[in-house]
Amino acid sequence: MTSEPMSPHPLDVVLINNHMNDLLEVAAASLKKAAMNEEAKEYILNDEKLFRTLKKAANRYIGGEYLEETITKVLAYNQQGYRCGIEFMGENSHTETEARHATNEFLRACDQIKDAELNATLSLDLSHIGLSISKSLCMENLQRICEAAGRTNIEVTISAESTDKTDAVLDTYLHAASSFDHLSITLQVYLHRTLEDFQELIKTPGRIRLVKGAFDTPKGLSMPRGRALDERYLEYLDELLAIGHKCSIATHDLFIQQSAERMISSYRSRRSVYEFESLYGIQTDQLENLKDKGHPAKIYFVYGQQWYLYLCNRIAEHPMNLFKALIDIVDGSITSS
Description:
By secondary structure, the chain is an alpha/beta fold.
Protein backbone atom coordinates (compact mmCIF):
# COMPACT_ATOMS: atom_id res chain seq x y z
CA MET A 1 0.00 0.00 0.00
CA THR A 2 1.43 3.35 -1.05
CA SER A 3 0.96 6.38 1.13
CA GLU A 4 -0.40 9.65 -0.17
CA PRO A 5 2.30 12.29 -0.74
CA MET A 6 2.29 14.80 2.07
CA SER A 7 1.37 18.37 1.23
CA PRO A 8 4.00 20.91 2.26
CA HIS A 9 3.28 22.83 5.41
CA PRO A 10 2.06 26.42 4.65
CA LEU A 11 4.97 27.84 6.62
CA ASP A 12 7.42 25.81 4.50
CA VAL A 13 5.82 27.23 1.34
CA VAL A 14 6.26 30.77 2.65
CA LEU A 15 9.90 30.12 3.54
CA ILE A 16 10.60 28.59 0.13
CA ASN A 17 8.95 31.54 -1.66
CA ASN A 18 10.89 34.03 0.43
CA HIS A 19 14.11 32.16 -0.26
CA MET A 20 13.36 32.16 -4.00
CA ASN A 21 12.64 35.88 -3.94
CA ASP A 22 15.91 36.51 -2.11
CA LEU A 23 17.82 34.47 -4.71
CA LEU A 24 16.16 36.39 -7.56
CA GLU A 25 17.03 39.71 -5.94
CA VAL A 26 20.66 38.62 -5.57
CA ALA A 27 20.65 37.51 -9.21
CA ALA A 28 19.21 40.87 -10.28
CA ALA A 29 21.87 42.80 -8.35
CA SER A 30 24.61 40.62 -9.86
CA LEU A 31 23.29 41.17 -13.37
CA LYS A 32 23.31 44.95 -12.88
CA LYS A 33 26.97 44.78 -11.91
CA ALA A 34 27.77 42.39 -14.75
CA ALA A 35 26.06 44.75 -17.19
CA MET A 36 28.67 47.43 -16.48
CA ASN A 37 31.63 45.07 -16.98
CA GLU A 38 33.42 46.29 -20.11
CA GLU A 39 35.68 43.22 -20.24
CA ALA A 40 32.71 40.86 -20.22
CA LYS A 41 31.03 42.85 -23.00
CA GLU A 42 34.15 42.75 -25.18
CA TYR A 43 34.63 39.04 -24.52
CA ILE A 44 31.08 38.27 -25.68
CA LEU A 45 31.42 40.47 -28.78
CA ASN A 46 34.64 38.73 -29.78
CA ASP A 47 33.49 35.15 -29.14
CA GLU A 48 31.19 34.27 -32.02
CA LYS A 49 29.76 31.10 -30.47
CA LEU A 50 28.98 32.78 -27.14
CA PHE A 51 27.62 35.85 -28.96
CA ARG A 52 25.18 33.78 -31.02
CA THR A 53 24.13 31.69 -28.01
CA LEU A 54 23.29 34.65 -25.75
CA LYS A 55 21.75 36.59 -28.63
CA LYS A 56 18.93 34.03 -28.68
CA ALA A 57 17.90 35.54 -25.34
CA ALA A 58 18.51 39.11 -26.51
CA ASN A 59 16.29 38.67 -29.59
CA ARG A 60 13.23 38.83 -27.36
CA TYR A 61 14.03 42.46 -26.56
CA ILE A 62 15.86 43.97 -29.56
CA GLY A 63 14.80 45.08 -33.01
CA GLY A 64 17.74 43.22 -34.56
CA GLU A 65 21.43 43.62 -35.24
CA TYR A 66 20.83 45.98 -38.12
CA LEU A 67 18.71 49.08 -38.74
CA GLU A 68 16.87 47.52 -41.68
CA GLU A 69 15.47 44.72 -39.48
CA THR A 70 14.24 47.28 -36.98
CA ILE A 71 12.67 49.51 -39.63
CA THR A 72 10.55 46.54 -40.78
CA LYS A 73 9.26 45.99 -37.23
CA VAL A 74 8.66 49.69 -36.65
CA LEU A 75 6.60 49.91 -39.84
CA ALA A 76 4.44 46.99 -38.67
CA TYR A 77 3.83 48.63 -35.30
CA ASN A 78 3.09 51.99 -36.94
CA GLN A 79 0.38 50.26 -38.95
CA GLN A 80 -1.13 49.04 -35.67
CA GLY A 81 -1.33 52.61 -34.36
CA TYR A 82 1.85 52.82 -32.30
CA ARG A 83 4.48 55.51 -32.37
CA CYS A 84 7.97 54.02 -32.10
CA GLY A 85 11.38 54.95 -30.74
CA ILE A 86 14.59 53.75 -32.37
CA GLU A 87 17.98 53.56 -30.64
CA PHE A 88 21.29 52.32 -32.03
CA MET A 89 22.70 50.56 -28.98
CA GLY A 90 26.06 51.51 -27.57
CA GLU A 91 27.79 53.47 -24.83
CA ASN A 92 31.23 54.65 -23.79
CA SER A 93 32.87 55.09 -27.19
CA HIS A 94 36.61 55.19 -26.49
CA THR A 95 37.86 56.91 -29.63
CA GLU A 96 36.76 59.78 -31.82
CA THR A 97 36.46 57.32 -34.71
CA GLU A 98 33.98 55.16 -32.74
CA ALA A 99 31.94 58.24 -31.74
CA ARG A 100 31.75 59.49 -35.33
CA HIS A 101 30.79 56.04 -36.58
CA ALA A 102 27.89 55.99 -34.10
CA THR A 103 26.90 59.52 -35.14
CA ASN A 104 26.83 58.51 -38.80
CA GLU A 105 24.60 55.56 -37.92
CA PHE A 106 22.13 57.91 -36.19
CA LEU A 107 22.18 60.14 -39.26
CA ARG A 108 21.44 57.09 -41.41
CA ALA A 109 18.53 56.26 -39.11
CA CYS A 110 17.16 59.78 -39.65
CA ASP A 111 17.24 59.18 -43.40
CA GLN A 112 15.53 55.80 -43.04
CA ILE A 113 12.77 57.24 -40.86
CA LYS A 114 12.20 59.97 -43.44
CA ASP A 115 12.32 57.67 -46.48
CA ALA A 116 9.95 55.09 -44.94
CA GLU A 117 7.67 57.87 -43.62
CA LEU A 118 7.72 56.31 -40.15
CA ASN A 119 6.03 57.69 -37.06
CA ALA A 120 9.23 57.33 -35.07
CA THR A 121 11.69 59.12 -32.82
CA LEU A 122 15.42 58.68 -32.36
CA SER A 123 17.13 57.87 -29.03
CA LEU A 124 20.79 57.82 -28.07
CA ASP A 125 23.32 57.62 -25.26
CA LEU A 126 25.55 60.69 -25.19
CA SER A 127 28.56 58.55 -24.27
CA HIS A 128 27.99 56.66 -27.54
CA ILE A 129 28.62 59.83 -29.54
CA GLY A 130 31.62 61.03 -27.59
CA LEU A 131 30.70 62.29 -24.10
CA SER A 132 33.27 60.00 -22.45
CA ILE A 133 35.95 61.47 -24.72
CA SER A 134 35.13 65.18 -24.59
CA LYS A 135 32.06 67.38 -24.17
CA SER A 136 32.98 69.37 -27.27
CA LEU A 137 33.07 66.24 -29.46
CA CYS A 138 29.76 65.06 -28.03
CA MET A 139 28.17 68.46 -28.56
CA GLU A 140 29.39 68.62 -32.15
CA ASN A 141 27.96 65.18 -32.93
CA LEU A 142 24.69 65.87 -31.11
CA GLN A 143 24.26 69.07 -33.09
CA ARG A 144 24.71 67.18 -36.37
CA ILE A 145 22.06 64.65 -35.35
CA CYS A 146 19.59 67.28 -34.10
CA GLU A 147 19.98 69.36 -37.26
CA ALA A 148 19.31 66.33 -39.48
CA ALA A 149 16.36 65.23 -37.35
CA GLY A 150 14.93 68.74 -37.21
CA ARG A 151 14.71 68.95 -41.00
CA THR A 152 12.07 66.20 -40.97
CA ASN A 153 10.53 66.91 -37.54
CA ILE A 154 12.02 63.83 -35.82
CA GLU A 155 12.20 64.01 -32.05
CA VAL A 156 15.58 63.09 -30.52
CA THR A 157 15.67 61.64 -27.00
CA ILE A 158 18.76 61.51 -24.79
CA SER A 159 18.74 58.23 -22.86
CA ALA A 160 19.67 57.70 -19.22
CA GLU A 161 23.17 56.56 -18.27
CA SER A 162 24.98 55.59 -15.07
CA THR A 163 25.24 58.07 -12.22
CA ASP A 164 28.86 59.00 -12.90
CA LYS A 165 27.64 60.64 -16.12
CA THR A 166 24.46 62.36 -14.85
CA ASP A 167 25.98 65.83 -14.48
CA ALA A 168 27.57 65.73 -17.93
CA VAL A 169 24.42 64.35 -19.56
CA LEU A 170 22.13 67.01 -18.08
CA ASP A 171 24.61 69.84 -18.74
CA THR A 172 24.88 68.80 -22.38
CA TYR A 173 21.12 68.55 -22.73
CA LEU A 174 20.46 71.96 -21.15
CA HIS A 175 23.01 73.54 -23.46
CA ALA A 176 21.61 71.89 -26.59
CA ALA A 177 17.95 72.39 -25.61
CA SER A 178 18.37 76.13 -26.02
CA SER A 179 18.82 75.53 -29.76
CA PHE A 180 16.67 72.44 -30.42
CA ASP A 181 13.14 72.24 -29.05
CA HIS A 182 12.71 68.75 -30.55
CA LEU A 183 15.39 67.40 -28.19
CA SER A 184 14.08 65.53 -25.14
CA ILE A 185 15.63 64.05 -22.01
CA THR A 186 15.24 60.91 -19.89
CA LEU A 187 14.82 61.54 -16.16
CA GLN A 188 15.59 58.79 -13.64
CA VAL A 189 13.03 59.14 -10.86
CA TYR A 190 14.87 56.95 -8.33
CA LEU A 191 17.82 59.34 -8.01
CA HIS A 192 17.54 61.65 -5.00
CA ARG A 193 19.10 64.47 -7.02
CA THR A 194 16.16 64.36 -9.46
CA LEU A 195 14.10 66.49 -7.05
CA GLU A 196 16.41 69.40 -7.90
CA ASP A 197 17.12 68.46 -11.52
CA PHE A 198 13.40 68.29 -12.31
CA GLN A 199 12.86 71.95 -11.49
CA GLU A 200 15.53 72.93 -13.99
CA LEU A 201 14.39 70.58 -16.72
CA ILE A 202 10.76 71.71 -16.75
CA LYS A 203 12.01 75.12 -17.92
CA THR A 204 13.04 73.53 -21.23
CA PRO A 205 10.54 72.82 -24.03
CA GLY A 206 11.70 69.25 -24.76
CA ARG A 207 9.76 66.19 -23.71
CA ILE A 208 10.69 64.70 -20.33
CA ARG A 209 10.77 60.90 -20.43
CA LEU A 210 10.10 59.53 -16.95
CA VAL A 211 11.74 56.21 -16.04
CA LYS A 212 12.14 54.65 -12.60
CA GLY A 213 15.86 53.97 -13.16
CA ALA A 214 17.62 50.71 -13.97
CA PHE A 215 21.29 51.21 -13.08
CA ASP A 216 22.98 49.97 -9.95
CA THR A 217 24.02 53.03 -7.92
CA PRO A 218 26.40 53.73 -5.02
CA LYS A 219 24.68 53.64 -1.63
CA GLY A 220 22.67 56.74 -0.79
CA LEU A 221 22.15 58.03 -4.33
CA SER A 222 18.83 56.39 -5.16
CA MET A 223 15.51 55.20 -3.78
CA PRO A 224 14.74 51.47 -3.59
CA ARG A 225 11.92 49.96 -5.63
CA GLY A 226 8.60 50.17 -3.83
CA ARG A 227 5.52 52.29 -3.23
CA ALA A 228 7.51 55.40 -2.22
CA LEU A 229 9.26 55.39 -5.59
CA ASP A 230 5.96 54.84 -7.41
CA GLU A 231 4.42 57.81 -5.62
CA ARG A 232 7.43 59.99 -6.45
CA TYR A 233 7.05 59.04 -10.11
CA LEU A 234 3.38 60.02 -10.06
CA GLU A 235 4.18 63.34 -8.37
CA TYR A 236 6.51 64.28 -11.23
CA LEU A 237 3.92 63.18 -13.78
CA ASP A 238 1.18 65.20 -12.08
CA GLU A 239 3.29 68.35 -12.23
CA LEU A 240 4.14 67.81 -15.90
CA LEU A 241 0.49 67.31 -16.83
CA ALA A 242 -0.60 70.27 -14.74
CA ILE A 243 1.68 72.67 -16.63
CA GLY A 244 1.14 71.02 -20.01
CA HIS A 245 4.75 69.90 -20.42
CA LYS A 246 5.36 67.11 -22.96
CA CYS A 247 6.19 63.82 -21.25
CA SER A 248 6.59 60.09 -21.75
CA ILE A 249 5.25 57.68 -19.14
CA ALA A 250 7.97 55.11 -19.74
CA THR A 251 7.18 52.24 -17.38
CA HIS A 252 5.72 48.75 -17.43
CA ASP A 253 4.43 49.12 -13.87
CA LEU A 254 0.69 48.42 -13.96
CA PHE A 255 0.03 50.42 -10.78
CA ILE A 256 1.67 53.53 -12.28
CA GLN A 257 -0.07 53.05 -15.62
CA GLN A 258 -3.50 52.77 -13.99
CA SER A 259 -2.80 55.68 -11.63
CA ALA A 260 -1.62 57.78 -14.60
CA GLU A 261 -4.85 56.97 -16.46
CA ARG A 262 -6.92 58.35 -13.59
CA MET A 263 -4.68 61.40 -13.36
CA ILE A 264 -4.90 62.06 -17.10
CA SER A 265 -8.70 61.98 -16.96
CA SER A 266 -8.59 65.15 -14.83
CA TYR A 267 -6.40 66.90 -17.41
CA ARG A 268 -8.45 66.36 -20.54
CA SER A 269 -7.04 69.49 -22.17
CA ARG A 270 -3.52 68.00 -21.73
CA ARG A 271 -4.06 64.78 -23.72
CA SER A 272 -1.74 65.94 -26.51
CA VAL A 273 1.31 66.28 -24.25
CA TYR A 274 1.77 62.72 -22.96
CA GLU A 275 2.42 59.24 -24.26
CA PHE A 276 2.66 55.81 -22.63
CA GLU A 277 5.83 53.95 -23.57
CA SER A 278 6.92 50.33 -23.32
CA LEU A 279 10.10 48.57 -24.36
CA TYR A 280 9.75 46.12 -27.23
CA GLY A 281 9.22 42.60 -25.92
CA ILE A 282 8.14 43.51 -22.39
CA GLN A 283 4.48 43.48 -21.26
CA THR A 284 3.27 45.10 -24.47
CA ASP A 285 -0.22 43.68 -23.83
CA GLN A 286 -0.64 46.40 -21.18
CA LEU A 287 0.39 49.06 -23.70
CA GLU A 288 -2.00 47.62 -26.27
CA ASN A 289 -4.83 47.96 -23.77
CA LEU A 290 -3.93 51.62 -23.20
CA LYS A 291 -3.78 52.24 -26.95
CA ASP A 292 -7.17 50.63 -27.46
CA LYS A 293 -8.57 53.07 -24.88
CA GLY A 294 -7.35 55.97 -27.01
CA HIS A 295 -4.10 56.83 -25.22
CA PRO A 296 -0.99 57.69 -27.30
CA ALA A 297 1.24 54.61 -27.16
CA LYS A 298 4.88 54.13 -28.09
CA ILE A 299 7.06 51.04 -28.55
CA TYR A 300 10.78 51.56 -27.89
CA PHE A 301 13.16 49.57 -30.12
CA VAL A 302 16.90 49.14 -29.80
CA TYR A 303 19.17 47.55 -32.38
CA GLY A 304 22.83 46.73 -32.94
CA GLN A 305 25.41 44.33 -31.55
CA GLN A 306 25.97 46.14 -28.25
CA TRP A 307 23.04 44.35 -26.59
CA TYR A 308 24.91 42.89 -23.60
CA LEU A 309 24.19 45.79 -21.23
CA TYR A 310 20.60 46.02 -22.45
CA LEU A 311 19.92 42.29 -21.96
CA CYS A 312 21.37 42.28 -18.44
CA ASN A 313 19.25 45.26 -17.43
CA ARG A 314 16.05 43.79 -18.89
CA ILE A 315 16.53 40.57 -16.92
CA ALA A 316 17.58 42.43 -13.77
CA GLU A 317 14.44 44.60 -13.84
CA HIS A 318 12.24 41.48 -13.88
CA PRO A 319 14.36 38.60 -12.50
CA MET A 320 11.81 35.97 -13.58
CA ASN A 321 12.88 36.89 -17.13
CA LEU A 322 16.02 34.90 -16.39
CA PHE A 323 13.99 31.74 -16.92
CA LYS A 324 12.66 33.06 -20.23
CA ALA A 325 16.24 33.76 -21.29
CA LEU A 326 17.27 30.19 -20.49
CA ILE A 327 14.32 28.81 -22.45
CA ASP A 328 15.17 31.03 -25.44
CA ILE A 329 18.77 29.84 -25.39
CA VAL A 330 17.95 26.15 -25.00
CA ASP A 331 15.10 25.67 -27.45
CA GLY A 332 16.00 28.41 -29.93
CA SER A 333 12.31 29.25 -30.40
CA ILE A 334 13.27 32.86 -31.06
CA THR A 335 15.52 32.56 -34.09
CA SER A 336 18.84 34.37 -34.10
CA SER A 337 19.00 36.94 -36.88
